[in-house]
């Protein structure tokens, strides 16, 4: 089945959004769902044009309110696969409140948070994930705000599936989004997405640094917390010195590999949020 709509895709050439769209269109048929049972709900922003490009149901909704609308749909129609497409401005500024409550209620939603660390649609103002000192048209002297870390935010709201991927790694984007689709509960996947027009190269430091790439977290409640290349898995380890990240092949038997996201344990969430840092 073809999940591509007949609409012309209108993102700028080279935009990271294309990678996510192509990944979703490629794995969605393998889930065995009927097109009429899939719904993409977006807010406002560049990425929020996503529903036009899917040959499914969809709604380009209100700024920041996609999680609220999607919550209504997912709870009244549990048979549907409901997706939220949002960006760093849409989800974390005007829509921050709706996002955290969708996550803490563990609504059965797949939330794709395109993070390009800038407002692209309105032509380049600093966003809630822009770094301190960011010079933009709206912050000519540099931003004073400390950025949100969406992974920390989701863990703090006790989302049951949290992951971060980068648009330059198409295989990992596909694998992670497919895992999110198969998860029942609220899944937040933050996607580091390059905006070549207004914030080009925002994530180049990660592309060039293998060690930092390994910090990209994939976490599912009740399953081992591992990440990194298949043949060199890293995990979250509980040792005498608290939680830390280690190559699983180097873990001492006396140390415990954390197998469960303990939603009651704040130090655990903190350890993971540190892993997900944007430094
Ligand atoms: Fe993509 Fe940036 Fe263009 Fe928006 S402004 S479509 S985020 S490249």
UniProtKB/TrEMBL annotation:
Coiled coil: none
Domain Thiamine pyrophosphate enzyme TPP-binding positions: 44-191
Keywords: Oxidoreductase
Keyword DNA-binding: no
UniProt protein name: 2-oxoacid:ferredoxin oxidoreductase subunit beta
Residues represented out of the complete protein: 27 to 305 of 353
């Amino acid at each position: 089945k073809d999940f591509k709509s007949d609409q012309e895709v209108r993102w700028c050439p080279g935009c990271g959004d294309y990678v996510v769209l192509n990944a979703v269109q490629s794995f969605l048929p393998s889930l065995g769902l009927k097109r009429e049972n899939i719904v993409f709900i977006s807010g406002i922003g560049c990425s929020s044009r996503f529903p036009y490009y899917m040959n499914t149901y969809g709604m380009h909704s209100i700024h920041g309110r996609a999680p609220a609308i999607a919550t209504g749909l997912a709870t009244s129609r549990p048979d549907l696969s409901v997706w939220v497409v949002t960006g760093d401005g849409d989800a974390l500024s005007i829509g921050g409140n709706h996002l955290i409550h969708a996550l803490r209620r563990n609504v059965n939603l797949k939330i794709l948070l395109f993070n390009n660390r800038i407002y692209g649609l309105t032509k380049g103002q600093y966003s809630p994930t822009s770094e301190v000192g960011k010079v933009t048209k709206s912050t000519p002297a540099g931003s004073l705000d400390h950025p949100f870390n969406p992974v920390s935010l989701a863990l703090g709201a006790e989302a049951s599936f949290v992951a971060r991927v980068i648009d330059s790694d198409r295989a990992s984007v596909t694998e992670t989004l497919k895992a999110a689709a198969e998860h029942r509960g609220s899944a937040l996947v933050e996607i580091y997405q390059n905006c070549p027009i207004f914030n080009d190269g925002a994530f180049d430091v990660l592309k060039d640094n293998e060690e930092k790439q390994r910090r990209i977290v994939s976490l599912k409640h009740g399953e081992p917390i591992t990440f990194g290349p298949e043949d060199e898995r890293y995990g979250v380890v509980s040792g005498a010195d608290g939680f830390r990240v280690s190559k699983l092949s180097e873990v001492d038997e006396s140390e415990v590999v954390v197998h469960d996201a303990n939603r009651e344990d704040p130090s655990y969430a903190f350890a993971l949020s540190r892993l997900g840092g944007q430094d």
